[in-house]
Amino acid sequence: MTQQRFLRPARITAATLAIGALLLTGCSANQVSTGASGGSSESALLTIPREDMGTFVQNFNPFAPTLNPMVQQSIYESLLIFNPANGETTPWLATEWQAAEDGKSITFTLRDGVKWSDGQPLVAEDIAYTFELQKKIKGGYDYLENVAPEGTNKVKFNFSKPWSPALYDLGQLTILPKHIWSALADPEKDANAKPVGTGPYTEVDSFQAQSFVLKKNPNYWQPEKQKIAGIKMLAFAGNDGANLAAANGDVDWAPQYMPNIEKTFVSKDPEHRQYWFPATGAMINWQLNTAKAPFNDVDVRKALSMAVDRDQVTKIGMSGYAKPADCTGLSGNYEKWKSADVKDSCTWTKLDVDAANALLDKAGYAKGADGKRTLKDGKPFEFKISVGASSSDWLSVANVISQNLAEIGVTAKVDSPDWAAVVASYETGDFDSGIVWSANDPSPYKYFNTSMGTATVKPVGTKTFDNYHRFGDAEADALLAEFAAEADESKQKDIAVKLQEEYNDAAPLVPLFSGPVWGAFNDTRFTGWPTEDNPYATLSERSPTTVLVLTSLEPRK
Predict the structure, then answer these.
(1) Burial 103-116, CB ≥16 within 10 A → b, else e
(2) For residue 380, what is the DSSP state?
(3) Which of 116, 515, 474 is nearest to 317 (CA)?
(4) Could you read off the pLDDT of 383-398 as tens digits, one per residue?
(5) Which of 38, 59, 452, 503 is deepest in the core (most CB within 10 A)?
(6) CA quadruple 507, 508, 512, 516: dihedral positive or negative?
(7) CB atoms near residue 552 (< 10 Å)
């Protein structure tokens, strides 16, 4: 998900322009003077814009509907970290793990000497409690029978059946301290204003609506890697303001969409400014709410997809940074899993207006004399495409789709409230269609499960956090069960081919493009950034690999 902002000239100086623009975009002027361009290298804070949040609320609860930045990247940590940029897995709070031969359990060994920021030790009970709380509040983990601590430094996850995707499903959840959370009256709603975590930067030093600062965890288990003084997050109501702050040198890290980045960002200081957009992000889909007619009709889904000009979508909406999707549904993260045969047989993910019109005619969605189609009940064939107002790139994508659909007599109106409202409508099923991210785990199991698995389908009105489009497929269920029970990756790949074939037949979603992982930086003040040549992490501030960046950066000497 990406976002944007605005500016206005006053007196013709760079400082005045920057301050005026930041005020217009919900960011206070004092952020300019205390941002990346100010302060000594020893005391300077790593300054990062958050382009999709016009204001911050002092809530560091990982269960909050709107999650503050750095909660899952700097405050709380997971047992392991998977890096899609190089395919490597780094042991983190766990040093090792062992799966049972029957595939029905996995045991993690915890790292010695890890303490919470309040000085209490990390113990196996913390891991067990975290999963108990996660299941209670968010659900999921249906295969997980129980979590059994074995002493203080080992924890065993027992499954109801063999479950090969469990390693990353379990290993990537951030862990909470039982001694803190078990004492809360309402863990789901508590603001957690002064969090206690195991991460490198946990201490809330200051908090304002437009910015907050996290300082060093005094009990971090890798103190030698806390080389930056702290993190300063800046709130913006969209991409434009965040991009202006980056262009002006007011931030160190710019993990958002920037059009024409060579000209607007890099050219201002090519010696110190770089960007890297690897194609290992999630598949970005246009989701159609299949709980509503006519989106429950596969012919309609395929016809609408064939009307979309993905070359326009990626060129205009994404500034040429992304590649069009194909009918496997798989992003660039899964190149080794893709079936060449399925990819070569794609029809409904290619632009074909004539075929789209013919398919809608055949399905009974007639065109009137005015060239506009009607539904089978005679009502106009029109609906909304929901996108958060701050996402300039995805708004452009939605507008391209809207224009494309006019070519086949379908009216789509772009609806752009704030992201919180959009996501809330996705979760309850109270939407027509929308641009949405997807699961991006090491294997494609979760992507296909949340695209087609009937177990992930919730009735409209019941909140879900995965299968927003509410599509289930019995044939996919059988293949998913087979995949989960198989530990051999070569055999999993054979099953994945069949899942791609089923995806191609069912068209549960309209895949648009493989999401680039946005990331740009200015190394004037800090060095040690990941790059294409040194992909030890991605440059997305939202990524689980962010903690790898935070523990690798150091002030420029």
Answers:
(1) bbbbbbbbbeebbb
(2) B
(3) 515
(4) 999 999 988 899 999 9
(5) 452
(6) negative
(7) 18
Contact between 253 and 50 (Cβ < 8 Å):
no
Q: Order of strands across the sheet with 154-159? A: 94-99, 105-110, 154-159, 144-150
Q: Which of 282, 358, 288 is nearest to 510 (CA)?
A: 288
DSSP letter for each residue of 81-119: EEETTTTEEEE-SEEEEEE-TTSSEEEEEEPTT-B-TTS
CB 262 within 8 A of CB 232: no
pLDDT for position 457 = 96
Residue 235's SS3 state is strand
Q: Which helix (H) or strand (E) holds 311?
A: helix 310-312
The span from the CA of 131 to the CA of 303, in Å, is 42
Q: 209: closest CA among 352, 30, 85, 86?
A: 30
In the 8-state DSSP scheme, what is residue 185? Answer: S
pTM: 0.86
**Selection from 430, 391, 422, 419 nearest residue 515 by Cα:** 391
> Rounded distance, CA 117 to CA 128, Å?
19
CB 477 within 8 A of CB 297: no
Which is it for strands 80-83 and 411-415: parallel, antiparallel or unpaired?
unpaired
Instruction: Using CA atoms of 541, 546, 547, 550 in order, give the dihedral in degrees to the nearest 10.
Output: -70
Both tokens assigned to 515: 């999401």
| Assigned token pair, 117 | 């920021």
> Rounded to an integer, what distance in angstroms lies between the CA atom of residue 116 and that of residue 123?
10
| CA pair distance 489, 268, nearest whole angstrom | 47
* Whether pLDDT at 33 is above 60: no
Single-letter code of the amino acid located at 475: E
d(CA 468, CA 456): 9
Helix pair angle (474-485, 445-452), 10° resolution: 160
SS3 (DSSP) at 69 = coil
Report residue 472 as tokens.
Answer: 């289930």
Q: Is the peptide bond before 294 cis (omega within 30 degrees of 0)?
A: yes
User: How many percent of the chain have pLDDT more than 70?
Assistant: 92
- Cα 468 to Cα 23, 59, 414: the distances in Å are 36, 25, 18
The number of C-alpha atoms within 13 Å of 391 and in the hemisphere containing its C-beta is 26
CB atoms within 10 A of CB 369: 5
pLDDT, tens digit, 9 for 90 and up, residues 480-536: 999 999 999 999 999 999 999 999 999 999 999 999 999 999 999 999 999 999 999
In whole angstroms, how far apart are CA 355 and each of 55, 349, 403? 46, 12, 17
Q: What local confidence, expressed as pLDDT, does residue 38 receive?
A: 47
CA distance linking residue 142 with residue 126, whole number of Å = 20
Interatomic CA distance for residues 485 and 481, integer angstroms: 6
Residues with Cβ within 8 Å of residue 480, at least 6 apart in sequence: 445, 448, 449, 452, 453, 499
The contacts of residue 125 (CB under 8 Å, 6+ apart) are: 149, 152, 178
Place of tokens 């605005």: 6
